[in-house]
Predict the 3D structure of the following.
Amino acid sequence: MTDAALPAHVGDVIVRATGIEKYFDDNHVLRGIDLEVRQREAVMIVGRSGSGKTTLLRCLNFLEEPTVGSVWIDGVEVAADPLHARDRRHQEQIRQIRLRAGMLFQEFNLFPHMSVLDNCIEAPLRVRGEARQRAIERATYYLEVVGLVEKRDEFPARLSGGQKQRVAIARALCMEPKVLLFDEPTSALDPELIGEVLRVMEDLAHSGTTMIVVTHEMHFAREAADRVVFMEDGVIAEQGPPEQILEAPRDERTKRFLRRFLLT
């Protein structure tokens, strides 16, 4: 996407992945990915299963160590270094990247023995050394954002799947990351609960939260995305505004994917 085609509300580049390659033994999953994301931009990554979407997302915050390439987020750059992945300097760089990139998974990963509020304040207290009252104030604010402030004293076992995922979103926001990474956040939910999570995510996108979302929800991508990235066989085959990619794709691989998707 050229600068002239960028939405007016986006800012400077905040995430840059350069030359990302990933091998799992002989399986070449990512094949030289270059991707930039700007402040306040919502980027949706789509493609068939096995195209490398989730692996790319996990490489952005080094949950998977790339085989080759580098990731830059808000002034911190980490180069792939599989042979020295345990070095202290490399691990500190990764820690700084993760402070800037909050990640939401298919599973909610809430602490079952903690209340909703305690789940939200745990990382600010332990990782950032924040004052407890300040952490509680921020958690209360973000629980209001996701529509669950009345559940602050409940435990995860008493929440629906959709509520758990919304708490997970609030918990990630409490660390005030520069970008939120979502890995198919509705795929583990019952169909009737998907909408409540997507509405929160759409509101975040429209309010200017920088987001990179791996999703199979095409209607959501059309409504919430500033840019859709289509991946196929470990490469970015096509990217652009949602109306172009989802309604008038130019690449034959994108056309084939959408035809199959619409038939399923």
Q: What stands out?
A: The longest strand covers residues 13-24. The beta strands are 13-24, 27-38, 42-46, 68-73, 76-79, 101-104, 179-183, 211-214, 227-232, 235-240. Residues 62 and 94 are 7 Å apart (CA to CA). The chain has a mean pLDDT of 93.
